[in-house]
Amino acid sequence: MSERDIDPSVYRRRLRNELRRMRESRGVTQSAVAAEMEWSVSKLIRIESGTVAISVSDLKALLGYYEVTGGDEVRTLTKMARNAKKSSWLSEYRGVMGDVFLTFLGYEDAAARSYGFEPIFVPGLLQTEEYALEVLRVIRGSKDPQRIGRLVDLRLARQERILSRADGIKLNFLLDESVIRRAVGGHEVMRRQVKHLLDSTEQENLTIRILPFRCGVYRSMRVPFVVLEFAENEDEAILYLEYPQGEELIREDGPYDAEGGADPADPTAPPTYLQIFSELQQLTSEDETSDILRTALRETMDQADIPAS
Question: How would CATH label the architecture of 91-303?
Answer without folding.
Answer: 2-Layer Sandwich (3.30)
